[in-house]
Specification:
Number of helices of chain B: 14
Helix content of chain A: 40-55%
Shape of chain A: globular
Shape of chain B: globular
Number of strands of chain A: 8
Largest interface: A-B, 92 and 93 residues
Strand order of the largest sheet of chain A: 1-2
Strand content of chain B: 5-15%
Helix content of chain B: 25-40%
Oligomer: heterodimer
Number of helices of chain A: 30
Structural class of chain B: alpha/beta
Structural class of chain A: mainly alpha
Strand content of chain A: under 5%
Distance between the termini of chain B: 42 Å
Radius of gyration of chain B: 23 Å
Largest sheet of chain B: 9 strands, mixed
């Protein structure tokens, strides 16, 4: 890893050259840059600006033939090498030519354009198989918990994001439940807890999450599962679920196993999951007893409609709200709809125990089971006036009702917008939402709710790939606290702490050693106010419609994660993340550290270090101003002059980058 | 260690320059708007006394009909019939003086404070667009707030006094009051709006930006970037971050992050200096009560109001878990005990500081709950009772109008016991705003529907 950076320039450039092939396309605008192929001076690359410094009709991004000898070869590489690390304004026009992406710097971002172009001819379609590292890094950081350098190199080489996604879909799901169970035993909780009332296992479950987020091969599945866990929320912050850790881990696995399945199946699994049954109190909801003023519980029925499927208001296919004649949104359902649906969801109990037996004795990994005597068998009216006949079983009613809800036209745009917000950008254009929603409605083979197609539509959309160019002042999203930490821990292969014996006391119970990911500032639920499946309520850690007052709101932009970027959380999150970046052992062995050996090895040359971190952490989007500040600091005389200098340089560069506003908005 | 005066000054200069960059147009137009608004309204800069509002938000929807229960023979019978298995046994209630009502068994301290005149009850208040009764609701002739019974929408309406129509978040009535009242404060670095419970809409203002504090020590400097004397390069490192933030960004979200950091660093320094001046107190808070911990910091911030240059402060604290769809008898009792304990400690603390006449605490919650039962809990209702506390409150009294607690009765929006509010949130908030010396004209601007209701002053404030 990174070996090429320590070798001579030419060798480094050469290693970056990889020939790849992609199927050609007959589309009128192959690169989706808004310029038709017949007019496009580079059909292979998204270049809406059509920049062409030497005015030869070949756009710069398609024209690596700097010496105009009609072949891209070592002579052109030499021209680039001579100007490497220069910044605009350049001494001659050739400098501007060599600055292929036109960002004012001749650096690795430009080198990567040689991929596929080498020994070819310049021209609008000459580089029809090219793929740059910035695209790979951007994509991988949307699709994983944090791209590693080796992964960026591999995807840059293959150049095929579709295959990457297909490969990810084929990888079996990691199991949070199995790891939680194993860790609970290794942490000796099985000797201190009942194993049924498993509140002690929270630490095991959190540890399992970090193991899988950092080392799991099924990165895309797990990343989508986290997104789903912020939409179909259950939370152990609720007292009711604090002691259902195995059940919650199983719920997370349910999200992961359906992440590329069908949303209808996922709704079924979620509805009948014991932890959801507890969290939104559907379990043991009974048919009405009017004489006692007792009626079915409305909780799950309401949030299923408001949060998991329809959203509160009628939507157009592009996610915008349908407005009535007075300009107001139109409710997507009524209180009556909720009350009818509440009657549908009656008569469900924990598996394996009686209706009145204490829930703590149940196995919350098993789906709820129907107990017909408690089910409301009267006729019901579903959304759109669909009549549900009387006398049906609980399962028949539930299937029919979920079909009815799932078929509503709101589901596609509502769920699509939420998934786009979690994975790509807080402010998808209506066109982007509509493209994804139409895929939700029909995956091309007549199937509604195919999440694998939806995820592909989200990540491969022109807006996901080029939003930073198309919408340079608004694209992207604030990295939420958990994802800031996950990015560091995965990208830099976090080094856990190995323990044996009871998790806190160290008292042995004859089990093997295990790894944990401790922070000196206590549980993440307190220090950064965020752990997986630990939201304050079913409304998640933040609202999809939040917008801070001021320029962001004035511009009509949503910024959900800013709800977690207040004075206090901005500081505490920075503290938790920066500590791990800075942890070089000075504070003792008890805390997570990051593997930054490669960065320390680069730090003798600050320019190389910053270029590397720019690609690794910011997908090559570092502004010139930020780069200049960090370079100036790395060369500051106040830094140590001895052997510890490169350690300080590497860690401080990472910390300053990850403390910068430009980094914090992933785009 | 504190940031040195010089570096803070440099920092301020840098922040000011940054604000002159990308945000110039938007910022300037906002300032113009504010100045126009101020020109047409009261001059709040001359306020010389100190007053603080403490908003206690109960997330999830408090079942207030079980918090404050009719205790006359007829009243309790009606209550018991409506609530069935969730009715609190009459013998367990803490009756107030006179015996007409009783507080929940978990609230002995609140009852004591009620009888001592330091706590009042505002009955059956809620979100309304105009006075509304059962006939108006059921026949559709009354204008009804949209998205009734939804947590998120009703929370937004309680906190902003606006229906959640636009999609985007809106400013809160606390923030709008703070926009006006900050003229009274002499230190513009610290906002009038301080939250101990995270970002909230109630304090969202057009100009004032709420500051969030933690419940441990209020505020901490940014680790590794605080201009500490060690390591020797921390000064250069901190300066680099200053410079990075001062650059701002053309990207609106990135610039928001930059300005948020700038505000946070500036405010943290000032507030830490201030909290260091807080006098020692003898009032004991229950260390296990997270809600009380928030109030303890609030009391500290009020105690150093003069150091901080504050004449008007608006605090936000919160307690969650009120959404009692299941296991209500146990969960609600536990929550009310936390509320009772926190209120008692805070009241004692404020009294110890001698500031009881300048602090008013009040509760809000997005809705009450159904009188009917769903098995072992309740679902989302509408109107709810609220608590008011402080020396300025004319306590020991029930304000507003106690509803008829009958399923399908004259105050029921249907047949589930979702009680239609008999007092508007507008009236509640305006009464509090008037105490804070918001002018009548400005109250009408903040609460445009206020004129539709019988009175803009519900009378629960004893002194002005």
């Amino acid at each position: 890893m990174l070996s090429y950076l320590s070798k001579p320039m030419m060798l480094r450039l050469l290693i970056a050259l990889v020939l790849i092939s992609l199927p050609s396309t007959q589309a009128a605008d192959s690169d989706s840059d808004g310029v038709a192929n017949t007019l496009d001076n580079c059909t292979a690359f998204f270049n809406p600006d059509q920049r062409d410094t030497n005015a030869d009709g070949y756009g710069n991004v398609c024209d690596l033939d700097f010496d105009n000898d009609l072949v891209v070869n070592f002579l052109d590489l030499n021209i680039m090498a001579e100007r490497f690390s220069q910044s605009a304004p350049y001494a001659d026009a050739l400098g501007d030519d060599v600055d292929i992406n036109g960002d004012g710097h001749i650096n690795f971002l430009d080198v990567f354009y040689f991929n596929g172009a080498f020994l070819g001819s310049p021209g609008p379609s000459a580089v029809n198989n090219a793929f740059d590292a910035a695209t790979a890094a951007r994509f991988l950081n949307q699709a994983t918990f944090g791209a590693r350098w080796s992964e960026i190199e591999e995807l840059t080489a293959s150049g095929n994001m579709v295959t990457w996604i297909d490969n990810q879909i084929a990888i079996p799901a990691s199991s949070h439940e199995m790891r939680t169970r194993t860790l609970a035993i290794q942490m000796c909780f099985h000797t201190t807890g009942s194993g049924i009332f498993d509140g002690l296992y929270e630490n095991s479950r959190q540890t399992a999450f970090w193991e899988i987020a950092i080392d799991g091969a099924d990165q895309l599945r797990q990343r989508v599962a986290l997104a789903l866990s912020e939409i179909l929320v259950v939370s152990d912050r609720s007292d009711m679920l604090a002691a259902s850790q195995i059940g919650i881990a199983h719920y997370y696995d349910t999200l992961a196993s359906h992440a590329f399945g069908n949303y209808r199946d996922l709704l079924q699994a979620v509805t009948l999951h014991a932890t959801m049954g507890i969290y939104l109190s559907m379990v043991r909801s009974e048919k009405p007893q009017p004489a006692l003023n007792i009626r079915p519980d409305e909780n799950y029925a309401r949030e299923l409609l408001q949060l998991f499927t329809l959203g509160p208001h009628l939507l157009n296919p592009d996610g915008s709200k349908v407005l009535d004649v007075t300009g107001n949104p139109v409710p997507a359902y009524t209180q009556d709809d909720i009350e009818e649906l509440a009657r549908v969801f009656t008569g469900w109990n924990y598996s394996g125990i009686d209706w009145h037996t204490w829930f703590g004795l149940s196995d919350r990994t098993l789906p709820l089971v129907a107990v017909e005597v408690y089910h409301d068998t009267d006729p019901k009216t579903l959304l759109g006036g669909l009549a549900l006949p009387g006398g049906q079983t609980a399962a028949q009613d539930l299937d029919a009702a979920l079909d009815n809800v799932f078929a509503h036209s709101n589901v596609g745009p509502h769920v699509s917008r939420l998934l786009i917000q979690r994975l790509v950008t807080s402010n998808p254009t209506p066109e982007y939402i509509q493209r994804v929603a139409s895929t939700f409605d029909d995956n091309g083979a007549g199937v509604r709710g195919d999440l694998s197609a939806v995820i592909k539509a989200i990540l491969l959309d022109v807006e996901a790939q080029h939003g930073h160019i198309l919408r340079p002042t608004s694209f992207g999203k604030l990295r939420e606290p958990l994802l800031r930490l996950a990015h560091m821990r995965r990208t830099f292969n976090a080094i856990p702490v190995t323990l044996s014996g009871q998790r806190w006391t160290g008292v042995p119970c004859g089990q093997a050693a295990y790894n944990v990911y401790p922070s000196p500032f206590g549980p993440l639920s307190v220090s950064i106010n965020q752990q997986p499946q630990n939201a304050p309520s079913v409304f998640n850690f933040f609202s999809p419609d939040y917008s801070p007052s001021g320029p962001v709101r004035d511009a009509g932009l949503f910024a959900p994660e800013f709800q977690m970027f207040n004075t206090s959380l901005a500081q505490t999150t920075a503290k938790v993340v920066s500590f791990e970046i800075q942890n070089d052992g000075f504070w003792g062995p008890g805390w997570v550290a990051l593997d930054v050996a490669d960065e320390i090895a680069l730090a003798a040359n600050p320019e190389l270090l910053v270029e590397h971190l720019n690609m690794l952490l910011m997908s090559g989007q570092m502004t010139a101003g930020l780069e200049a500040q960090i370079l100036a600091y790395l060369n500051d005389a106040a830094l140590p002059g001895d052997a510890t200098r490169d350690n300080v340089r590497a860690r401080d560069a990472i910390m300053l980058i990850t403390s910068s506003p430009d980094y914090l908005i992933q785009k | 260690m504190k940031r040195s005066t010089i570096s803070r000054r440099n920092f301020l200069k840098a922040a000011a320059m940054a604000s002159l960059g990308t945000g110039l147009m938007a910022g300037q137009s906002r300032i113009n708007l504010l100045q126009a608004a101020l020109a047409a309204s009261t001059d709040y800069s001359t306020l010389s006394d100190h007053k603080s509002l403490v908003c206690i938000y109960l997330f999830g929807g408090n079942d207030a009909y079980n918090m404050f229960v009719p205790n006359t023979a007829a009243g309790y019978t009606q209550y018991q019939a409506a609530r069935g298995p969730l009715a609190i046994p009459q013998g367990l209630l803490h009756p107030v003086a006179g015996g007409d009502y009783g507080f929940h068994p978990s609230m002995p301290n609140v009852r004591t404070l009620f009888d001592a005149g330091q706590i009042g009850v505002l009955a059956n208040v809620g979100t309304l667009l105009e006075p509304t009764d059962r006939v108006g609701y059921l026949t559709g002739t009354a204008a009804i707030p949209p998205d009734l019974f939804s947590h998120s929408h009703q929370t937004e309406m309680w906190q902003t006094n606006k229906p959640a129509l636009a999609g985007l978040a809106q400013n809160g009535w606390g923030g709008e009051m703070a926009d006006l009242l900050q003229a009274a404060n002499t230190n513009p670095q610290v906002p009038p709006t301080i939250t101990l419970a995270g970002t909230n809409q109630w304090q969202s203002g057009a100009v004032t930006q709420q500051m969030a504090l933690n419940t441990y020590n209020g505020a901490e400097p940014f680790l590794f970037l605080a201009d500490e004397p060690w390591p020797p390069w921390e000064s250069a490192r901190t300066q680099t971050w200053d410079n990075i933030l001062a650059q701002g960004s053309n990207h609106l979200l990135a610039d928001e992050a930059a300005q948020s950091f700038n505000r946070a660093r500036d405010q943290i320094g000032v507030v830490r200096d201030g909290l260091a001046e807080a006098p020692a107190i003898t009032t004991v808070y229950n260390a296990a009560n997270y809600f009380a911990a928030q109030l303890k910091i609030v009391a500290q911030m009020i105690s150093v109001r003069e150091y901080l240059g504050m004449k008007r402060q608006l605090f936000f604290v919160a307690l969650g878990n009120w959404d009692s769809h299941g296991n209500q008898l146990n969960d609600h009792a536990a929550n009310l005990a936390l509320l009772d304990d926190g209120l008692a400690s805070f009241n004692a603390n404020i009294n110890e500081l001698g500031l009881q006449d300048s602090v008013v605490s009040f509760t809000m919650s997005e809705f009450g709950r159904t009188l009917t039962v769903n098995g072992d809990g309740t679902d989302h209702g509408w109107g709810t009772h609220c608590l008011l506390m402080g020396g300025a409150v004319a306590g020991g009294t029930v304000y507003g109008q106690m509803p008829t607690l009958t399923i399908g009765g004259i105050d029921d929006a249907g047949s589930a016991g979702r009680i239609i509010p008999t007092t508007s949130l507008d009236q509640y908030a305006a009464t509090l705003g008037k105490w804070m010396n918001i002018s009548s004209a400005d109250l009408n601007a903040i609460f445009p529907n206020l004129d539709l209701f019988p009175t803009a002053d519900l009378g629960f404030i004893a002194s002005r």
